[in-house]
Design goal:
Blueprint: E1 2-3, H1 7-24, H2 36-64, E2 67-80, E3 82-88, H3 102-115, E4 121-127, E5 131-138, H4 141-148, H5 162-173, E6 181-187, H6 198-207, E7 210-217, E8 223-226, E9 233-236, H7 243-253, E10 257-260, H8 263-274, E11 279-291, H9 293-313
Parallel strand pairs: 3-4, 3-6, 6-7, 7-10
Antiparallel strand pairs: 1-2, 2-11, 4-5, 8-9
Helix pairs in contact: 1-2, 2-9, 3-4, 3-8, 5-6, 6-7
C-alpha cells in the first residue's frame, strides 16, 4: 500500500489533538454538578462520543491521504504520424505569383498545417542544389514554428536537387517508430542536379513503407522574379514544375500528387493531406492503482456524525 497525499495524515493528527482538547475541556472548571449516578452515565456517554469522534477523524484523514495499491503498469499510446516536410528553396521560389512570393506563402501554409497536428512529429528538409536537414523529427511546437521561419533561400546553391533531398528525408524517416511515415515534397521546378534521381529516391521510400505526397506550386502564367541586383524584375516561364515526375513519385510510394496554383489552392492541398490516417505508438508507461479511500471516508463521516449527534442530543452540548 502507498499514499498519494501523506500530508493529510499529519494534518489529521493535528485535528485529532485539537478535538481531544476540546472534548475533555482541559483547564475548564465545571459549571454544573450532578449526582454521582448521573455523572457516571454521562461520563460513559461522553467517552463513547469522544471515541467515535476520534475514530471518525482518523478514518477521514486516512482516506484523504488516498491509500492505494499498485496493480501493475499499462502503456500509454498516442495517435501520431511522423512527417518530413521537404521544401524547395531554390531562387525561383521567390517568384511573386503568390503573395508576397511562393516561399513566404508556402511557409505560412506549412505553419498552419503543423498547428493542426499537435501530436505528430515534424521534421523539415530544405533543398536547392544541396539538401539540408533543418529540423529532425520533433513534437516541440514552439521550436517547429521557429524553424519554419528559417526556411529561406540563399545558401544551398542554385540548382534543384529533388532526388538527394527526398533521399535525405527517407534516411531520416527510417529511424522513426511510427508505422505511418509520410513525406510532403513541395517544389516549383525540375530536378537538374544531384547524385540520386527523384525516382530512385521514391523507390527507396517505397522500400521503407514511406508515403510521399508531392505538391507542385506556381502559376501556369509567367511569373515575376526580382533580379539579384534588386533593381528590376525578370520573367520566368510559368508551369515549369515537373508534374509528371511528381506524379510518378507519389504513385510509386502510395501517396498522392497535387498542383497548387495559388495560396488558396496550396491551403486546400495541405488540408487534404491533414486528413491522413493516424496510427498509435507507445509513448510512456503509467502505473494502474486500486484506490482504497472510499470505505474509510464513508465510515469516517458516519462515525464523526454519530459522535456529534450524541453530543447535541444526549449530552446536550452547546458551543
Amino acid at each position: 500500500m502507498e499514499f498519494k497525499n501523506m500530508w493529510y495524515l499529519l494534518l489529521g493528527g493535528f485535528v485529532m489533538v485539537s478535538y481531544l482538547l476540546r472534548h475533555f475541556q482541559l483547564g475548564k472548571k465545571p459549571e454544573f454538578y450532578f449526582y454521582k449516578k448521573e455523572t457516571s452515565a454521562l461520563d460513559l456517554t461522553r467517552h463513547l462520543k469522544g471515541i467515535l469522534g476520534l475514530v471518525g477523524l482518523a478514518l477521514i484523514s486516512f482516506a484523504l491521504s488516498q491509500p492505494r495499491v499498485p496493480l501493475g503498469h499499462a502503456k500509454n499510446t498516442i495517435k501520431v504520424n511522423d512527417i518530413f516536410i521537404v521544401v524547395d528553396v531554390s531562387r525561383s521560389m521567390l517568384a511573386e505569383d503568390f503573395r508576397p512570393n511562393r516561399l513566404v506563402a508556402a511557409r505560412e501554409k506549412i505553419r498552419e498545417f503543423v498547428k493542426l497536428r499537435p501530436t505528430d512529429r515534424i521534421g523539415i528538409v530544405m533543398f536547392s542544389e544541396k539538401a539540408f536537414t533543418l529540423l529532425p523529427l520533433s513534437t516541440d511546437l514552439d521550436l517547429i514554428e521557429k524553424v519554419i521561419g528559417e526556411i529561406n533561400t540563399g545558401f544551398l546553391g542554385s540548382g534543384t536537387n529533388i532526388g538527394d533531398a527526398l533521399g535525405l528525408a527517407v534516411g531520416r524517416a527510417t529511424q522513426s517508430l511510427a508505422e505511418n511515415k509520410v513525406i510532403i515534397l513541395l517544389t516549383d521546378g525540375v530536378s537538374n542536379v544531384g547524385n540520386m534521381t527523384p525516382l530512385q529516391a521514391a523507390q527507396q521510400a517505397k522500400e521503407q513503407n514511406l508515403k510521399v505526397y508531392t505538391i507542385g506550386i506556381g502559376q501556369k502564367a509567367n511569373a515575376a522574379l526580382l533580379r539579384t541586383s534588386g533593381r528590376n524584375y525578370q520573367r520566368i516561364p510559368g508551369g515549369s514544375v515537373d508534374l509528371e515526375t511528381l506524379e510518378k513519385i507519389s504513385t510509386i510510394t502510395g501517396g498522392k500528387s497535387f498542383y497548387a496554383g495559388s495560396e488558396g489552392a496550396l491551403e486546400e492541398v495541405l488540408n487534404e493531406i491533414q486528413k491522413l490516417e493516424k496510427t498509435e505508438i507507445q509513448s510512456s508507461s503509467k502505473v494502474i492503482y486500486k484506490e482504497l479511500y472510499w470505505p474509510y471516508l464513508i465510515w469516517g463521516i458516519i462515525a464523526f456524525l454519530l459522535a456529534e449527534l450524541f453530543g447535541k442530543t444526549i449530552l446536550r452540548e452547546v458551543l
